[in-house]
Design a protein that fits this description.
MFS_Efflux_Transporters, 2 domains, transmembrane transporter activity, MFS_dom, transmembrane, Growth Hormone, Chain: A, 389 residues, 0% strand, transmembrane helix, 83% helix, mainly alpha
């Protein structure tokens, strides 16, 4: 069976994003308890390494655009694969905080390098009618990565946490090879000069940019505190890897995001994702001692999380088809800043509010943001027409 251009790019992109974003980005938090125990690192050092991994992701986001402008959009995806593999190998063999930090930062940067360039690759190499589906498939690759990460975590329970990182290194190399074989080269596109292009892009992305602030903030709160909630609920040790696997499995529905967005509108789908994440946060905050409620929360969150990220890729490509990668990167950078601020604010208020209350308050923020987006769409009509900047 011969794959179409959209199928080839979608398959390769899903593998690369799945490994870089679904595995390398979340592996540090998943293996942190074992790293703490084996290497004897302080909470301060562990926290600094965690922050550094996110700095690596942000650096990848910011550097991917200039590299694509010089060498074509496939170049950042290749760079991201190399960073992910080298970083994962380094963490696998690390015996010191410096090696651990360096490897974790490199691995964390992979997600920033690879995700946004696929928007340009898709809009330039895939037929227009196939583009929403291809973008949704690529983004939903994160689901497969989360499932694989959960499997590696279960395997590591029988041996060492280093098996997780070794598995990520192998998966990264495999994905990079598939990417080079299936994704065509694209010629570099010069970046617009001056403030005019930036201001036009900002105007076009006001609504998806605001969505990014809310979406990434509430999602990072869920991922940051889910493991703590499960531990406080005295659930089995296997509950944490099972949570990741459940999020990944249910998140596979994100492959339909393109078709759903074409029927309902991207703004409405984004709003419904915020409402869905709100429901998952409420369950996690109020019933964390129940295995059934926690499982339901993970499944609901998987749907909202993966569809919510997929619709952002589809939405930005609709609004700014001539600069889809730059548009998506802009929203991801805004979301990255939000992701940094949200845990810091949460950490400041948790001692006074309590973890359960914090999750419920975050759910309220997500719900209100979703309602506001729905009302905005109703007031302004359908999503604005595509804009070239």
């Amino acid at each position: 069976m011969t794959l179409s251009a959209g199928g080839r790019v979608g398959l390769a992109g899903a593998m690369v994003v799945g490994v870089a974003f679904g595995m390398a980005r979340y592996a540090y938090g998943l293996t942190l308890p074992s790293i703490r125990q084996e290497l004897g690192l302080s909470e301060l050092v562990l926290g600094l390494v965690a922050s550094a991994t996110f700095a690596g992701y942000l650096a990848g986001l910011l550097l991917a655009g200039p590299l694509a402008a010089r060498r074509g959009s496939r170049a950042p995806t290749t760079t991201g694969g190399a960073c992910g593999a080298l970083g994962a190998v380094t963490v696998t063999v690390a015996q010191s905080p410096w090696l651990l930090a360096g490897g974790a930062v490199l691995a964390g940067s992979a997600g920033g390098w690879v995700w946004a360039p696929y928007s340009d690759i898709v809009t330039r190499s895939v037929a227009q009618r196939q583009q929403p589906r291809a973008l949704a498939i690529i983004t939903t690759g994160t689901s497969g990565g989360l499932v694989a990460l959960g499997g590696l975590a279960a395997l590591s329970a029988l041996g060492s946490w280093r098996l997780v990182w070794g598995g990520i290194a192998l998966a990264t190399v495999a994905a990079a090879v598939v990417n080079l074989r299936l994704v065509p080269r694209t010629t570099p596109v010069p970046r617009p000069d001056g403030r005019r292009g930036a201001s036009s892009l900002a105007r076009a992305l006001r609504v998806p940019g605001a969505y990014s602030v809310a979406y990434f903030a509430v999602v990072v709160i869920y991922f940051t505190y889910a493991a703590d909630v499960l531990q406080q609920g005295d659930l089995p040790a296997a509950a944490v890897p099972a949570l990741y696997a459940a999020i990944g499995l249910t998140g596979v529905v994100g492959v339909a995001t393109g078709a759903v967005a074409q029927r309902l509108g991207s703004a409405r789908v984004a709003a419904l994702c915020l409402v869905t994440v709100a429901a998952a946060l409420v369950l996690l905050g109020l019933a964390s001692d129940s295995l059934l409620a926690t499982a339901a929360s993970a499944c609901i969150f998987g749907v909202g999380y993966m569809t919510g990220s997929a619709v952002l890729a589809v939405w930005t490509a609709e609004l700014v088809p001539d600069r889809a990668g730059a548009a998506f990167t802009g929203c991801l950078v805004v979301g990255a800043v939000s992701s940094v601020a949200a845990p810091a604010l949460a950490g400041a208020v948790v001692p006074g509010l309590g973890l359960g209350t914090l999750l419920v308050v975050t759910a309220a923020v997500s719900l209100l943001s979703g309602v506001a987006l729905l009302l905005h769409r109703s007031a302004t009509g359908s999503t604005a027409a595509p804009t070239a900047v």
